[in-house]
Amino acid sequence: MKKGFIPIVATFFVAIVIAAVAAVSGVIHPNNPFKNEAILGATGSLSANPNPCTIATGQTTCSSTISWTISGSTADVCVSPAGAADQLFANVGSSGSKDATWVSAAIYTFKLKVPAGTCAGSTIASVDVTGKSATSTTTNTTTNSTTNQTTTTNSVDYKFSMTVNMTNVKGEPLKLAGVKVSIDLTDDAKANMTKAGLPIPQFASKQTNSQGLVEFSAIPRRNYNVTISGIPSGYKLAAEEKNPQILIPNTVTNPSPEDKTAVNFKIGKRNEKPNIVVIMTDDQRWDTLKFMPNVQSELVSKGINFTNYFTVAPLCCPSRSSFLTGLYPHNTGVRTNQAPNGGATKFNDSSTIATWIKSAGYTTSLMGKYLNQYNLLKGRIPPGWDDWHVFVGSTPTGSYFNYTMNENGKVNKFGESESDYSTTVLKNRAVDFIKNNKDKDTPFFLVVTPFAPHTGATSEIPPTVAPRYLGTCKDIPVFRPPSFNEADVSDKEPWVANKSPLDGGPLSKLGEDVNHGKDLSKIEYIDFLRREQICAAKSVDDAVADIIKALGDNINNTMIVYTSDNGYLWGEHRMVGKNCEFDECMRLPLVIRYPSLIKSKGTIDKFVLNIDLAPTFAEIAGVKPSSKVNGVSILSLLTNPNISWRSDFLEEFGLDNYVLRNNNYTYGELKNGVKVLYDDKNDPYQLNNLLSDKNNKGLSSTANGEVQTLTRRLGQLKNE
Q1: Percent of the chain, pLDDT > 70?
Q2: CATH no. for residue 218?
Q3: How far, in Å, are 3, 5, 179, 246, 480 from residue 230 at the CA level?
Q4: 112-126, 262-276, 453-467: lowest mean pLDDT where?
Q5: What is the span of the domain harbouring residue 666?
Q6: Same structural domain for residues 336 and 371?
Q7: Residues annotated as part of the active site
Q8: Residue 91 and residue 568: Cα distance in Å, rounded?
Q9: Do residues 81 and 123 lie in contact, with contact meaning Cβ atoms separated by under 8 Å?
Q10: Is residue 139 a contact partner of residue 154, using CB atoms and an 8 Å limit?
């Protein structure tokens, strides 16, 4: 058996009919139970002559004269299995005979059936006719108990070729080497051969070659069971192919291609619907994937990297609520992380991707972070989830150590040992889940949501790096885009315009370098925080490698999605954190690897949103969302990146901040009547708000017209 194959066995009843360029002879059944038996007042007899009948070497046909007597009824003379010429002599009476001609060495059973009616009657006489090669030297001698006629029965083997043609779920040809094929006579066939005095052969199993071909030697014109095993892991024989009927043509040795028998076993994916694995980090920027070698080698280089992927809400709970439902925040009602305007108690979990995909037959699992304030649900597991391992409580340093998880209704506490590091725990849970489910007939939907690289309870507390990676990021160069510590923020909204410069002075509020015990300035802390977030993501990168390893061959039938819930600011516009209209808050990483669908690896720069993922998963699962969605499935985009796509979208943050993004502008209508407009093509770092008092005096009539268009479009999206 080939490495990576598992013994998945399915047995099929196949009528294997073997035809050979060889001699044919006849034999009378030695124990005819029907002789002179009165059925409906009828009696009769049946015989075949010559016995045996031998075709001369080089000839291709043979005829035996079938003779009968019948009294008390009309009758049919019928033959089985099908294959002899003139196989039905209909409506015969009294006595008579007729030549039966065929071109195969086989065992035929002729039956005298009454009353006449296209072989629908009862059998009152029977005779078996078998073949004998002109060159055969091995014989069995039998005597008919009624006629005392002695005949010779051929026992020569007949070679035939069987091609096991397989297809994948798309119907595409799939020829695999190493698939084990076994044949064995059915119980009925063995019984008939025993009655005829023929030996019962044994057949050794064989493996298909690279063309799916096997060759056997077997006794002709008998029914066989065919057993297929050694099918690759993750595949199965399709249920609709359980009873194929095949005909073996005239082959003795070295069969020509046109003579090879095709056995069209459809082998499809064990889970014909693909598995789905989502890895969603917390507060990870799109530009940090370059620090993750496993994500690069296993996902980016083997999938599609979406360079314009955005969240519709740059804050944990609103973003995750939109991910689960495919809805904008104004439709989920989740606008913040805490009640009453957000948090888990605000979220309506009755219709989510979990409930949709569960209804499609998926086994579902969520591991890690669910929604903020999940603890207020008091242990309740939302509908749609079969397997549940979710953070309940944590310390001010976050859910890295000393946290609790609700694990399928049981609350477990974790400590401070290295094995308790939450990303490692979640990785191990995910690997176990995959191993326990990957070979089942039901597909699975696994969402892994580590806490990393989130800070502690506030941005003043850096993330906790796994012990094995402490200090490994200290040499990463500092980050200084043009928007870092922006010199003039007076054109921004008031809560930004009022921020002081990051002047390098001490700021104890931002904490200290926990690895070195050093008080840090604002800028030093931001540099330290950035490196620690990058380092915290290294454990997630390890988890990606282990999850892919656990999938094994199933990766070919699995969509793997890597993303985050929102971005993060590292000093741009004098800010640290998230929940803003700027690119750093909204733009996220998204990489998808799905070998069964994605044929061309690379990047896609179309606008894709986190609300698109739920409808995408639903389409893969073959189920329609049970409620309204704002997002759209991206499956068509995966196969054809050049299709027409959305040109704008809505972003929301806080209670009353709405932002329209298109290919040219970021336009926002914020609380207290504040408006912002950034020319993203000419001002990619969003330094100049064109609608501020400082800048908008010089707007052209064309620009003013553009603003009016943006205003109308934003209003439309707010009402969707």
Answers
A1: 73
A2: 2.60.40
A3: 10, 6, 5, 22, 57
A4: 262-276
A5: 656-720
A6: yes
A7: 316
A8: 90
A9: no
A10: yes
